[in-house]
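CORE FACILITY INTAKE
Project code: CF-77B
Contact: R.S. (postdoc)
Sample description: multi-component assembly, two entities in total
Requested service: structural model of the whole complex
Turnaround: standard
Below are the sequence entries exactly as provided by the requester. Do not edit them.
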Amino acid sequence: MAKERGKFEETAIIIRQEEIADNIYSMWLRTEQIAVHTKPGQFISIYCRDGSMLLPRPISVCEVDKSDGAVRVVYRVAGKGTAEFAKFRTGKHLKIVGPLGNGFPLLDKKAFLIGGGIGIPPLLELAKKLDCEKQIILGFKDELFLLEEFCSRGEVYLATEDGSAGTRGNVLDAIRDNHLEAEVVYACGPLPMLRALKSYAAEKDMICYLSMEERMACGIGACLACVCKSTGIDPHTNVKNKRVCKEGPVFLAEEVDL
Amino acid sequence: MIHTEINLCGIPLKNPVMTASGTFGSGAEYAEFVDLNRLGAVVTKGVASVPWEGNPTPRVAEVYGGMLNAIGLQNPGIDLFIERDIPFLKKYHTKIVVNVCGRTTEEYIAVVERLADQPVDLLEINISCPNVEAGGIAFGQNPKTVETITREIKKYAKQPVMMKLSPNVTDITEMARAAEAGGADALSLINTITGMKIDIHRRKFALANRTGGLSGPAVHPVAVRMVYQTFHAVGIPIVGMGGIMNADDAIEMILAGASAIAVGTANFANPKATEEIVDGIEAYMRRYGVKDVRELIGCVS
């Protein structure tokens, strides 16, 4: 038996990179196979060049340009690994593995796309691929990013903690302020936001998909580092744990115990 | 013609490259990156008599030249393992080593007995996990306990038994001799070294378990030293592991006295690491005119 394929290990080339907000970087990478196979909500592992940093950094794909074989990641510099990536310029090579995880299912239903902070980027590819009525609700601390890209993909509503743009408060405040309604929620962001959306969706009887985050090691489902609590026994792990990198990162809200 | 075959306590391996328990699942995930047929053996994630949920998250943290983990031996239990994981591995031409864990001697024996009629080549007994409250390392830090549990397991085991030793001891050779006295057929070392990381910005432990096992290149010299000492203390074969990132590290471990080597954390940094190490060992042998890899075992002076 030969190798079973589905994920690809590649040397990608940085096409361009820029800082689009304070400490938030946008990087386009040219790939051979990964761009062609990536679905909205999936992520890639980016490996550091500095050998003292062993673990790949899992970063969600923000956008795919299949014709150019390129993927875009938008990430926050959160530690030494992402600080290394941020220094790289056009032409630099990076080892990446992907596409990883399950991604968002594309339903033909009136949708909320809800992103908080650095959870916003993966919703862009989802907004491009969803062919339905889309209301995009984005929550920022203060500084906005990716706004132009989203505005051409649906109606955009903003929430900021300081009230400098849109509703002062969080994404749920923005939904209420604007009297928005939908049948399905697609969300990515900090845990308190996901928790609030899970109960909001349950109350409104909406289908709700949440993209989760957890510290990872292997990124491909082998090491069991990145599990989240599940409401039922997971068929793979045989306990109430699901692997965020493999069964996720996108889960139906009722599948996970937040 | 070069010969990479080795014999590990009666089990013929096509080459000395194995996987380190817990880093490779049961092989299915890595089969997308490496040809499992090329590996000497696949060592599975530890399996217990019943499913274990493991520790809370975060379960891993990166440190300079290594990582800490405190997975807590999450596993699906022996029933599902026998139904799913062993048949998967049987599709490949590689040896199957099952890592066995338990909280009590009876729990280890329950797994060993269930595996008796299974197509498993070797049992690795985990008496060295630093991340569980009961079992694990509690068995591996006292020579009397090591000897007793080894002897008990040997009574029930149908396959050869390899005891996995902890480096978190004053004298590894004492534990190695105890396992040999208890009837162990082989030894594997080292498991991870207990460590801690603190997030200075949040003033919190990086791991939910507070402590975790250190692995990766940072521990490699410790592992080489302990394999060397153990090689000179016992007569049974040793599977050496601890921070092997590439073929050079693997050769170093073999020269220290390992009959075979296991690749762990390197899989995370490079999913193709195992296969590359197989190739690299062959390249080393050709470069230095080594006809048989066994010539290298313990051959440091």
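Facility notes:
- The longest strand of chain A covers residues 8-21.
- The two ends of chain A are 40 Å apart (CA to CA).
Invoice: internal transfer
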